[in-house]
Amino acid sequence: MSKIKKISFKVNFYEYIKPFRIAPGTSLSTNNLEVILETEEGYVGFGEATPSFRVTGERIEALIPLESPINELLKGKDTKNFRRLFELIDKFFAFPSLKTALQYAILDALSEEIKLPVYQILGGGKEEIETDKTVSVGSIEERVKEAEEIFKEGFRVIKIKVGLNLYEDIEAMEEIAKRTKGATYIVDANTAYTPKQALIFTKELYKRGIDIALLEQPVSAHDLEGLKYVRFNSAFPIAGDESIKNRYDALRVIKMEAVDYINIKLMKCGISDALSIVELANTANIKLMIGCMGESSLGINQSIHFSAGLGVFEFHDLDSALMIKEDKFRGKYKIKIPYYIPS
To answer: Which residues participate in Mg(2+) binding (predicted)?
Structure first.
């Protein structure tokens, strides 16, 4: 038995190596909340919350005051009963990134106690996973250059951000495809296109012989009819991201037949909801990818162990820790570009 003794919060500030630009805005830094969970037996588990006001409405200032009620809720509880604890933490549904950090910290402390990595606690589905790396929004020349650099680094799945200028996006994709032959492309509009623009984009790529694995969140998060319209008229698979923040959103888009892929991000939903979404998607024959926000190595560690444990994700967009400055590597995984190996 390993009972929870104390849970502490710590705010960590990270700068991006270079500005990270997507259609809705540019990120220069990120404030993440580290969760430290200590048990009476001396085991310590770590988690990280990366709140996104744009996606989930969370701000780190709203998470910090929850330290005391979280301790009241979980103190004395046994980490071995983690599914029961997940249900308690689910009451904090308005704070999905904090849910993730707490739920993972419980698993991490349990992992330390029983000497079994978290990915094996979750099933040991894969021994390694392949990540992509992302090209920020920029000029055609900037995006082409960044894509070439990523390809030369050894990444074979390249994610390209689009959405500010439709026709520049098309030209950038054509040039990137010429310069990085053999790569697989994930294109992400981050809600920036209208349904008609999304279809112009996909039709132009198809006409020019440019193959993409999927187009992610082409339209507004709340425009599910538009998302469905694009999916039924696109030559390429369509993924939902910002439209799917929890298990109920996932059920809705599955019923509507609005997507081919669901992008699970632990920061949007917590580990408990992510487990439910996986089962819903598998039942409905919807494919899965896993993404990230602005996690450090400590935070991306959570998604690496989750995805390797379940082994069900076709694409892994887990590159945030490669894009920020860190004084110390905190992950329980090894990097062998383009692979992550959980440990």
So the answer is: 188, 216, 241
CATH 1.10.3810.10 fits 121-342, yes or no: no
**Entry pTM:** 0.97
127 in a labelled binding site: no
Equal CATH topology for 4-115 and 121-342:
no
Residue 216 annotated as binding?
yes
Q: What are 306's two structure tokens?
A: 């989750």
Active site residues: 161, 265
The first and second tokens of residue 62, run together, are 């709203």
- 190 within 8 A of 161, measured Cβ to Cβ: yes
Token pair 């698979």 in the structure block, residue: 237
CATH T-level fold of 4-115: Enolase-like; domain 1 (3.30.390)
pLDDT of 181-211, one tens digit each? 999 999 999 999 999 999 999 999 999 999 9
Tabulate helix, strand, coil % of the chain (nearest 5).
Answer: 45, 25, 30
Is residue 211 marked as binding? no
